[in-house]
Amino acid sequence: MNFEIDYFRALETPRLARLGPNIVAAAFPLMKLMPARFILDRAEKSGELKAGVHIVETTSGTFGMAVALLAAARGYRLTLVTAATLIDQAYQHRLERLGANVVPIEDERGDGNQSGRLAHLQAIMESEADTFWTRQYDSAGNWLSYARLAEQFVRSMGQVDWLVGCVGTGGSLCGTGTFLRQLYPHLKIAAVDTHRSVLFGQPVGKRMLRGLGNSVIPKNVQHHLVDEVHWVGAYAAYHSAHSLLRNHGIFMGPTSGAAALVGGWIARTNPGAVVAVIMPDEGFRHANTVYNDQWLSSLPGWPCEATSEPEALSVIEPGAEWEWTRFDWRRRSLDEVQRSQNRRAE
């Protein structure tokens, strides 16, 4: 038995949880192990990644943990470039315990400073000959790796009418959606984003909800696959994460809470449809924040009422952290939607 394959396969295999009569969620221990391992395996097979090569990536989320686990198991050096506002000390220490060199970049605007992180990553590659950039934002290996998740949904559900998932790099939603739509051409896809993320046309700004959204647009975000977009504020996602634990015994992070919130509404408003939801993050990283009443009480505007349904938008605009908004995307490119919005504003 290949111990690494057996061990990591267990970590990247989701629990399929029924959240209602017509909705099933894939709740992952560490979803990003799926694309991380797929990308490294392909690079090793091609010879691009070999002994002595220095792996580099820009990440603020669980992709960094996935690569750190794999790099430690396979004996590679690893540098992770992140934003100082996006990584807490405990998580940084966990990554460093695995041998990763974590480089936090200043983030004065609070939007993740992706351009600064990419510039630092580029400087590392220019200064060292033997480096390998996993390129989670643009590598086709990211979205291709989710064929296994699509297969799990098909085998367990038999039919999928709606797919709901958060978008950060675009890999999980667009990859799973691409494979499922080959079997179910009628499949509708709902993308879950957060306010002040540029992925679906909002102006960039400081984002409180982490693990989804972006300040740049990765190539793996395939806008033409998406039927509708939901922007979920941090507080709405926190309430939903609490509800998952209270009502279903599922301890997940706020990104998963946001996906479950949208998926639940779609399932209720489409009772004849079968809804699949991707929930990528467990709650352990958020135990001292999202699940901590003292931390929550320090937030402006908290406590607030839980949001039960989205506000439909005709014009794309950011909302407050307790708000949840929805826009009919209709499988258009970002340019098409932005041109339509500009005509509306004239």
Estimate the helix proportion, in percent.
25-40%
Second CATH tier, the architecture of the largest domain: 3-Layer(aba) Sandwich
Number of domains: 2
**Structural class by secondary-structure content:** alpha/beta
Q: State Rg.
A: 19 Å
Strand content range = 15-25%
What is the arithmetic mean of pLDDT? 93
- How would you name the oligomeric state of the polypeptide chains in this document? single chain
**Order of SSEs:** HEEHEHEHEHEHHEHEEHHEHEEH
Describe this structure in words.
This protein is of the alpha/beta class and 346 residues long. The chain has two domains: 3-31 and 141-341, Rossmann fold (3-Layer(aba) Sandwich), CATH 3.40.50.1100; 33-133, Rossmann fold. The chain is 39% helix and 17% strand. It has twelve helices and twelve strands. It has helices spanning 3-11, 33-46, 62-74, 89-97, 114-127, 140-144, 147-157, 171-183, 234-248, 254-269, 293-297, 334-345; strands at residues 15-20, 23-27, 54-58, 77-83, 101-105, 131-133, 162-166, 188-193, 228-232, 275-279, 311-312, 324-328. An eight-stranded mixed β-sheet has the order 1-2-10-7-8-9-12-11, sandwiched between helices. Strands 5-4-3-6 form a four-stranded parallel β-sheet, sandwiched between helices. Helix 7 packs across helix 8 (171-183) and helix 9 packs across helix 10 (254-269). 48% of the residues are buried. The mean pLDDT is 93.
Write the SSE topology.
Blueprint: H1 3-11, E1 15-20, E2 23-27, H2 33-46, E3 54-58, H3 62-74, E4 77-83, H4 89-97, E5 101-105, H5 114-127, E6 131-133, H6 140-144, H7 147-157, E7 162-166, H8 171-183, E8 188-193, E9 228-232, H9 234-248, H10 254-269, E10 275-279, H11 293-297, E11 311-312, E12 324-328, H12 334-345
